[in-house]
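Same chain as my last thread, 137 residues:
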Amino acid sequence: MDKHKKNSTFNKGFSSIKLDRLPSPIQKKIVDFDKYHKKLSFFQTLQLFLHGINDEKESLEEVDAAFVSKELQKEMGMTSFSYSQLSRTLLKIDSKILLAIFSQLVNQIKNKRPITKRNSLNLIDSSTFSLNQNLYQ
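reply #2:
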């Protein structure tokens, strides 16, 4: 897939997120978040995070390295950031905001097409954790 198609796909997907249509307590959390973050707003942080996922970046350093692209800087309305800054900002995002955005996107999908066995959405958690080797060989 070439870069221009990927960027337009990213923009199209990102445009589905309507922050102004989230419940008011969630919107207040976003406003409060932005009060204390001068360099990266919630919207910009979300864009960077989703861009990293879309481009399959393996680390925040890779997201930072990709940001040398003038097109990407213009698209996101930023000139620079550091991966450590992005890391600190991501840690402070309330998971309830992300859950509300996810719910909004799922509802949009449900409204477009009735759910059947054939088009159902299955979520898989890819977290890893270690088990006690004595109990679970």
